[in-house]
Amino acid sequence: MNNNTSLIWNIVLTVALAVLYFLHFSGGRSGSAGATDSSGIGGRRIVYVQVDSLLSNYEFFKDTKKELESKRFQLENDLTTRGRSLENEIAFFQQRAQTMTLDQARSTEAQLMKKQQDLVQYRDRSAQQLAQEEANKNEMLYNQIQQYIKQYNEDNQYEYVLGYTQGGGILYADSTLNVTQKMLQGLNKAYTAKNGGAAAKKDSTAKK
């Protein structure tokens, strides 16, 4: 099973890459664009996003984290229940083994071994499916943030939007260049609108 924190670290790395890679825009823009904004170095328009804050306050990330943790918990409980059931069958067989014929004992033992193999395969298959779902959610997050930042930059036309994380490559960031809240508002507004529309459509379909 994946560690509960694996999703967080995967998404942190993903978003950091998205912010740093996809937002190197318009290196050749005119000097007038830089002159209209005091943000930047040497006239360049530069802002930054606090990655940790963006993640912890983005509703999609919070919902996804909760959903995956719930599925992980359900799978662990399911595996525990199946494992205990098999243990009880094995214990019962061991108690009755002396009263069985050799053929009966061999047949029962073979059945129990098959159940054990099936349980291991079920565990591995379920863990792989959950890991794939986690990877899909990471990709969805990556795409949503990438698309929104591109849209955001159409109006603002920054040359650089940096991803700032504590202990990361950026040692200091002027708070006046922080656009995290603006991006969070836009991301959450888009996510809420999309989810609200999907929920309304689902309710409408159910009433028909």
Keywords:
mainly alpha, two-stranded parallel sheet, 6 helices, rod-shaped, 208 residues
Structure in words:
This protein has 208 residues and is mainly α. It has one domain. Helices cover 72% and strands 5% of the residues. It is built from six helices and two strands, in the order H-H-E-H-H-H-E-H. It has helices at residues 6-22, 31-35, 51-57, 59-96, 102-156, 180-207, and strands at residues 46-50, 160-164. A two-stranded parallel ribbon has the order 1-2. The radius of gyration is 26 Å and the shape is rod-shaped. 15% of the residues are buried. Mean pLDDT is 80; it is low at 4-38.
Average pLDDT reading: 80
Strand content: under 5%
- Please give the alpha-carbon distance between the first and last residues: 41 Å
Query: Could you spell the SSE succession in H and E letters?
Result: HHEHHHEH
Tertiary shape: rod-shaped
- Which runs of at least 5 residues are low in confidence (pLDDT < 50)? 4-38
How much helicity do the residues have? over 70%
Structural class: mainly alpha
Number of helices: 6
What order do the strands of the largest sheet run in, or round the barrel if closed? 1-2
Integer count of domains: 1
User: Which sheet architecture does the biggest sheet show?
Assistant: 2 strands, parallel
Radius of gyration: 26 Å
Tell me how many strands there are. 2
